[in-house]
Records
---
Amino acid sequence: MSSIFTDPAFWHRLQFAFTITFHYLFPQFTMGLAWFIVYWKWKALRTGEEKYNEAARFWAKIFGLNFAVGVVTGIPMEFQFGTNWADFSRYAGGVIGQTLAMEGMFSFFLESAFVGALIWGEKRLGPRYHFLTAVAVATGSWLSGYFIIATNGFMQYPVGYEVAANGSLGVASFGAFLLNPWTIIQFCHNQTAALVTGAFVVAALGAFYTLRGVHPKQAKLYLNAGTLVGLIASMITAFPSGDQQAKMVGHHQPVTLAAMEGKFHGGEMAGVAVIGQPNVKEQRLDNAIEVPGALSFLAYGTFESYVHGLDEYPPEDWPDNIELLYYSFHLMITLGTIFILLMAVANFQRFRGRLDTSTWLLWVLALAFPFPYIANTLGWMTTELGRQPWLVYGLFHTKDGYSKLVSNGDTIFTLIGFTGLYFVLGLLFLFLVGREIYHGPDDDGPHDDLGSEPAL
Amino acid sequence: MNATWYVIVSFMLIVYVVLDGRNFGVGMLHWLVAKTAAERRQVIEAVRPLLSWDEVWLISFGGTLFAVFPNVLASSFSGYYLALFLILWCLVLRGMAIEVGGHINDRLWQGFWDFVFVVSSFLLAVLFGAAGGNVARGVPIDPQGNFTMAFFTNFGVRGKVGLLDWYTVSVAVAAVVTLAAHGATYLTLKTEGPVHDRSAAYASKLWLALCPLGVILSIETWYVRPGLPAQAMQNPFSWLGIVVIVVSAITLISGLQKKLEYRAFMGSSFLIAGVLGTGGSALFPVMLYSTLDPANSLTAYTSASSPDSLVVALIWWPIAFVLTVGYFIFVSRRYAGKVSVAPENQTSH
């Protein structure tokens, strides 16, 4: 009996997908939040108003919890390349190992040196150095994002490589590899999306405190910053960064774009389906309501442009789960559109000075924060499902990449282990963040290190 | 070029063992040196600020190994599959124990996380020790460069070996004692009061216990890998390593006797580095020895990335390393000095 459950690649993929999805819940938030903390530290430095320091101090604690979980769930990611994807590591390690190593050396050392100082060193460092610490942490987290996306960018659109004598890949042009156009566009798209997550969480807490009638001064700060950044970031995530990302997929992975849009047959005036269900067996989009010509325009610039269909490519080159890919992509777009609308309304009310009295809107804002996490996850599902059946696009198949000597039993065992461990970790995280939120931002001045001698 | 990378990768692993090893040691001794709740917090505070910094060395080591010796990473990580996941899970639990333990000032909460800290630190010392033993003894690598291993087979050290046998278990025991001694030396440096005094007592006893263990282990290693000593003699780096071992052992002993805590800790750190460095140079150029057929062994020459990749990595690595040294100066100045017992009501944050 052959099914996906007996296919080792399925379990290796599932474990990587699960552990990376859980892990990325934390960095996407810290990468977004980091700049809020920088902004508040800067305002505090300029105005000398204590409320900005209070905001930075409170969110630094939330940052710290997210950072801690991000670190512990991040360590297994790198090691899984070796444990679960040994043949892929042998093949591409000379290239993608570079960026993974650079992430550790350039950004993690920076972050781990300064996160502690950000949370615990306010008194000792003084306002100026504490602000610089916030900048260092934010820079470190975005650098780390860049190296990871450079790794993914290579897997999506390999450039700057050479094939060595033994068939493995090496770096031929370091500049081309590091400044891969795919990487740059995807980085912009991903980072603005991380800012959306950060902004929605900040705004949600502001709305929550306003509804409860507690911490009014702080709540206003969160609402103002959260809604403003939320609007700008969600607009840039859609245009130009998301738009560019889709165009890039259209150019370099036309079969992926066809699958994302459920285009089984190529043609001019290709439409974008607002509603529709891909029917892979019959090779058509069921119950489709399409905007004619929209896909031609979005992908190639004119309504008449020819958009390739899946039928132009051999089925073995199709992404192997077209339905999931299609739904991930479309749901991400839907959510992204709703984010823009919601934040536009919120900013409209804010400019009229009515945001903190619009109870209905505050409820929506307070409850909306999980959705950017979902949208970010869906975006990555689109990216990674769309890359299939390749690990390195056009060069190396996914089915060739996993560790051949690791048994299915081993992989299922470790997958179950991760599920249990991360479930507990998730509960613990929610419990501790909940406590911080319940306790709220009004504390008694800056924290300081326990016990150690003044050194700076 | 390949030799340079062998040295760099070994260096990174050694730095990790020296830095995080002290945390494992502190974890294992936690219940023994700290008796009251406040003392337990004091011990945690001695390791908490630097924990993620120390772990980054492991991540950076893994990444660099991936970039320059992908075949070694692929074979060893997939071969040690379950053992490696145990290590990863212990690292997750240890990290959480340290991070969240202090969040709530409650006896049961902190007691529970102390328990997690102690158990995971102990398991990590055992697992890393056994892994080190496996590298020294060799693993059953097939002609394709792969291997797969049971946790144990017949406890023998030749042919189809398992993760645990009499040799790797003795290395694990030695690792537990060494790291506990290292941790005790670190606590002596970082704490004051009763914790300091107990740590100092443990440090002397544990280092003393290590003398016979070291001799036994050397004889065992000589039996398991008869060719190693001769190989070591030919490598000038081994001689350098032996000089480091002798000098740092003297430094450690004099530091312990004269109660010069910083000197003792430096001696302890360099002693561990010297032992690992000597081992590394004795093994060179073999990175993973095959117990089935030495011809299957993975070496720095047969399992490296393409020459161009090695050159590229040699461009960014020194830059990153200089920056890292800069951060290290910041970090170590920031957290210099002793951790004292905090008054009861200030331990929560």
---
Amino acid sequence: MKPLRTHPPEPALLILLSLAAGQKHGHAMMLDIEAFSGIRVGPGSLYGAIERLERDGLIEPIDGDERRRPYRLTEQGRDSLAGQVVALTTLARLGRQRLAGS
Amino acid sequence: MSGLTRLYPKTWRDRYGHEFDALLEDTSLTLPVLADVLMGAARARVTASVAALRTHPPSAASMVATTTGLRVGAVSAASAGMLWALTFLTGSLVEWGKYGRDLGFVLLIAAAAGLFVAQLTMTVDWHAARGRALAHLGVVVSAVGMAVLGLALLAAMAVSRPWSMRFAWTPLDVLMAGMALMLIGCTLLASAWLRGGRVVAGALLGAAAVALLLVSVLPAPPPEVSIMLDQIGRFRGAYRSGSTGGWFDTDPRTFMPAALFGVTWMLVGLGQMRRYFARPAPST
């Protein structure tokens, strides 16, 4: 039987999850995301998502090394992550119920 | 800043360039990583263009000029590119090389004029500051080329055949010189596109124009190679009456870059049409 493919989560969600454990620069985020999810986010996708998250005010850079600038979650980013986790948990619970009933 | 980072728009590089460079240094450059970076650069360019349109909406006059430029440029490029490719692929140039005023001659002049109009309108539509001077220089060189083409056409109509009995330089030679100038103009436009980020169109146009120029100036191949090329040409159905040995015959050395040149302009025309239909509606 052919293995089923699932869509990986959005890089933005993975970045928020990574930064929820503390501030990190780009490369540290890539290693952390691969460690907790097994997903390799490429540099282009990572910085595309970082740009969007920073523009939306969900993460912010911290002053320091210009080449390895760390980022952290903002309050708004923490709220957004919490909201997404609740939505995913609800979906997961519903999925389990429906699969059990079928 | 690394070459890959330079693919991103300037505003993006100013903000993230150093960080991105450092990340690329820490990451092994595999094919998937390269593809991801290229996709990221394309996304960043689209985002930057949309943001620029939002912050600096074009004036009504500029919108009209752009719309007209896109419309005329699209039709000219697509139809002239098709004419150009057809002219070389059907082999009718072999005939006008000998007799002066047959269909191939008219088609080629029409194609060259169409390409010039396309080049001119696309330069009007050109907004990237980095490539502007090159694009304008390309149009000037092409304009001189078109003038030479026109003079050659008049001369061809005025003199009796065979030309070589009266002139050291036949009208055909003058016409080819005009064509060479047009190709140089196209090469300059291709450079402008490359500098301005239109990488695929610039690379294709540049490669085709340079290949055609090289074919024009390189010496003829030795007889055994010519015979082989003749056979390929016949096999592909491109010949009507064999090689003339002139600058533009239909041997594969010529018609392959010529076809690429024509097809490139057709693709550029189709791209312009897509931009025309995707353009934002002018504000009232």
